[in-house]
Amino acid sequence: MDKTMAIEQALTAVQDGHTVMVGGFGVPGTPFTLIDRLLAQGTRNLTLVKNEANEAGMGVSKLLEAGRVHTLITSHLGLNPTAIAMMNRSEITVELYPQGILAEKIRAGGAGLLGIVTDIGIDTILRENRQLVRVAGQEAILEPALRADIALIHAATADRAGNLQFAQSARNFSPLMAMAADRVIVETEAIVPVGALDPDAVHLPGAFVDHIVVLDELTAEYGVLARHVL
Amino acid sequence: MDKTMAIEQALTAVQDGHTVMVGGFGVPGTPFTLIDRLLAQGTRNLTLVKNEANEAGMGVSKLLEAGRVHTLITSHLGLNPTAIAMMNRSEITVELYPQGILAEKIRAGGAGLLGIVTDIGIDTILRENRQLVRVAGQEAILEPALRADIALIHAATADRAGNLQFAQSARNFSPLMAMAADRVIVETEAIVPVGALDPDAVHLPGAFVDHIVVLDELTAEYGVLARHVL
Amino acid sequence: MSYKEKIAARAAREVQPGQVINLGIGIPTMIPDYLPNAGEVFIQSENGILGVGHRCGRGTEDRNLIDAGGSYVTLQPGASFFDSAVSFAIIRGGRVDITFLGTLEVSAEGDLANWIVPGKMAPGIGGGMELAQKARQVIVTTTHTTRDGRPKILERCTLPLTAKGCVKTIITELAVIDVTPQGLRLRELARETNLSEVQAKTTAPLLVTDGAIPRF
Amino acid sequence: MSYKEKIAARAAREVQPGQVINLGIGIPTMIPDYLPNAGEVFIQSENGILGVGHRCGRGTEDRNLIDAGGSYVTLQPGASFFDSAVSFAIIRGGRVDITFLGTLEVSAEGDLANWIVPGKMAPGIGGGMELAQKARQVIVTTTHTTRDGRPKILERCTLPLTAKGCVKTIITELAVIDVTPQGLRLRELARETNLSEVQAKTTAPLLVTDGAIPRF
Question: What pLDDT digit, counting tens, does each position of B14-34 carry?
């Protein structure tokens, strides 16, 4: 079994109008190479799901800036004034969720559930336009599960069967999104033979992975971000 | 930081009338030593949550047979005719859930959610006496989250801060239950200093663990079960 | 070859390289013995394993390594372990290509009833309902009739359902039958039988394509 | 010591050994510098870390190791990594003992408003709402007044809430104030101020226990 594939071939799966989940929280875990190639292939009219919008000029922000995204489902845009400006000019529609609720909506999609029930935000304006239910005598919000056509994921190590390991804080949303998409495309820094990973140390089982792209190099975007250094 | 404790002291937390989650799927992951000690201390009127009831004369079945349990929340009793007989004689109340829905109810409790929404069983008798909701135009079951007063967990390795690793198929319900209980008591085969575990290889972060009991020996119950050998 | 072995061997031929499969108790557990490219198929077990290998030889058992049926098993290369929530995420999330399940009854519309007999308390649901409802393909492997000779393949199930309209294919010692929108379609016949015997032992009508029926 | 350092230093004294704490952006990120037993406290970060250590010295940054605020950090012994769902399970499941948060407004009943100003589009919610609603203790660390001198501690919040009745303690450069069922209780006063100044800068009435008010 060998799920490795050329990047161009893997990304033909992403089509206009698709919903695309993109792993990463800041730089760690963001699949910059897959994003750049998606930009290059011109796919448009995307709904993007990502924790945040990276920073201006980086990662998914490039897709926003190029007008390829009509809706962004996210937790915050705090580090990306360009994305905030686009939202304020209504050039993109932004759906905001509490970060852990966004994670749970995605996870629920991945787990084949239809939704979760939470009291987060029940006393706030978040309750507006939400489906309210009562459970255990308590008012709560029913949040529908979220799934995607495609997930773009960055791994530290993959075996050819798609078992993945993530590095440190690069794990974040990646395993959840890989569970929640019909087609999961992974870029990996290292590729190892099937059987090389300790079965107890796999972070995401290969069943969730469709295509693996082996990175030849890590571009500068993957590196330490000078403006965040003390 | 050192969460290790004598077993007697750790188990004083378990009181009459408590809801107790017990990890394990068959022998792997069942905390036999904690169960035996709980039996010895005489705690009664328990609601027990476990994937299955172990086998007659083993593990949680000892608590059932000693009359310490009024309700068992579980997925199946298939390997325990004693427990089935007790259920049929109404000596215990048994709440049955599909195995993965039981896992999700527990996980939802652990994740501070109020419930999950699922279509599992919607066309079956499981829909009876359930809270039905509509989501995405579809009829579904709202399953309330499940939490416990206590979780009893078996780990392969713990550090003194409570970070845990499980061995192979012994992981099963253990991390979910450890998330879902107010007080989590872990028995471990090996104890290591804080800092000895690879942070990327921890299966359950120490924040979920309250007390650690270091096992002096593994009794025969932990071993290979002769009647399941080919 | 026993009738159970015959069913398992025929069922194994439904599996494609690269697929993730899940095996119920009974006959399905015998399927791996007949997989042509076992290393290219990943067997998932509800207790948190992807990549179950063959059953253990006596004396090689690992106390921490059983499958969901309680048998001591080995691993194949590329295996991984995970918790029960992730395990059923694989199942309900649509990443199990085929689940092989036994049954009490199966209907012409693909309804499956294999978990409870009213009047007898059911020993539980286990993972079967989720597998039946959410695996991409549900293949029933079963004897064609009950022990006392009554058909298991019915117009309508009489027992409470496990899942509605979920079964794609039924493999028995006598026949391979596909559930189609038009009804049950006989795909193959065992060498030891004939159409009239199979129809007599099947309550629902069987559609037959023109031409010779392939044998297995 | 700047006023921010003073707030952070006083806030650090609320932390007990063995606790799990989460630090919002701004002043809370300075708290670790003042923890007496830093090794005995586990700092949780929403992006999937338990056991964040001090910030990185220049040149020692790891591209894969940032906190939720985007700063390059180190690990303390006993740290662990996990995904975002587990990270918020720690938060919503009640395993964060204290969250330190900044705020725009806080009310006499402990309502917190720190995420949106109507008319300006909010840049998002992040993890703050879940921390405010579910951490065992919410401690607000904030300047006592806005930049233009208006009180932040009000009878009622005017801005949309982050969470209702969640705040336990408010620590400013002037005072430590507990939210109690009876109202706001002044626990400590900064050495540089006095009761009348603090009350003048606080819209809600402050309850004062008999005897000398401790200073910090």
Answer: 999 999 999 999 999 999 999
Residue of chain D whose alpha carbon sits nearest to that of B147? D93
Report the C-alpha gap between B62 and B96 in whole angstroms: 20
Within its chain, how far is the Cα of B199 from the centroid?
Answer: 25
Residues 6+ apart with CB under 8 A from A43: A14, A15, A16, A18, A68
Contacts of B190 in chain A (CB under 8 A): none
Query: Is C129's CB within 8 Å of B120's CB?
Result: yes
Q: Return the H-helix or E-strand segment holding A39.
A: helix A32-41
Q: DSSP readout, B141-177?
A: EEEEP--EEEEEEEEEEEETT--EE--GGG-TTHHHH
pLDDT per residue, tens digit, chain D (216 aa), is 899 999 999 999 999 999 999 999 999 999 999 997 767 899 999 999 999 998 888 899 999 999 999 999 999 999 999 999 999 999 999 999 999 999 999 999 999 999 988 877 678 899 999 999 999 999 999 999 999 999 999 999 999 999 999 999 999 999 999 999 999 999 999 999 999 999 999 999 999 988 899 999
CA separation for the pair B165, D188 (Å, rounded) = 44
Catalytic residue among C5, C14, C40, C46: C46
Residue D128: which H helix or E strand, with range? helix D128-134
Q: Is C105 among the catalytic positions? A: no
Q: A73-112 burial by CB neighbour count: b if 16+ within 10 A, else e?
A: bbbbbbbbebbbebbeeeebebebbbbbbbbbbbbbbbbb
Q: Which chains does chain B touch, 3 or more C-beta pairs < 8 A?
A: A, C, D
For residues A9 and B53, give the distance between their C-alpha atoms in angstroms, rounded to a whole number. Answer: 50
The closest alpha carbon to C131, from C84, C163, C157, C85, belongs to: C163
Task: State residue D57 phi and psi, 5-degree precision.
Answer: -70, 150
Angle B45-B48-B54 (CA atoms, 0-180°, nearest 5)? Answer: 120
The structure tokens 């691993």 sit at C75
Q: Is D159 helix (H, G, I), strand (E, B) or coil?
A: coil
Residues of D in contact with A27 (CB under 8 A): 63, 66
Reduced to 3 states (helix: H, G, I; strand: E, B; else coil), residue A86 is helix
CA B148 – CA C159 distance, rounded (Å): 35
Residue C78: half-sphere exposure toward Cβ, Cα within 13 Å: 25
Smallest Cα–Cα separation from D188: which of D172, D201, D174, D175?
A: D175
| pTM score of the predicted model | 0.98
Give tens-digit pLDDT for C111-161: 999 998 887 767 889 999 999 999 999 999 999 999 999 999 999 999 999
| C215 phi/psi in degrees, rounded to 5 | -110, 155
Proportion of chain A above pLDDT 70, given as a percent? 100
